[in-house]
Specification:
The chain is an alpha+beta fold. It is 48% helix and 17% strand. It has a single domain, classed as Orthogonal Bundle (Multidrug-efflux Transporter Regulator, Chain: A, Domain 2), CATH 1.10.1660.
Length: 65
């Protein structure tokens, strides 16, 4: 399998990357009218975001600006 190594970010790291609060990240995730990436449930107490998904979302926002 030629899949690149995936990097995962916890909600605190996502919030810091986006310069918002953790609550805002969860609100963006619940809001289906925006294109914020959905988290991936890796275990019963482990939710993470793919770095590649966040980078694509950031690029999309930059292109729209």
């Amino acid at each position: 399998m030629a899949e690149a190594t995936r990097e995962w970010l916890a909600v605190k790291a996502v919030a810091q990357r986006c310069d918002v609060t953790v609550n805002t990240i969860y609100r963006w995730t619940r809001d289906k009218s925006n294109s914020f990436p959905s988290p991936v449930k890796l275990g019963p107490n482990c939710t993470r975001w793919r770095l590649a998904d966040l980078e694509a979302w950031e690029a999309e926002r930059e292109a729209a600006a």
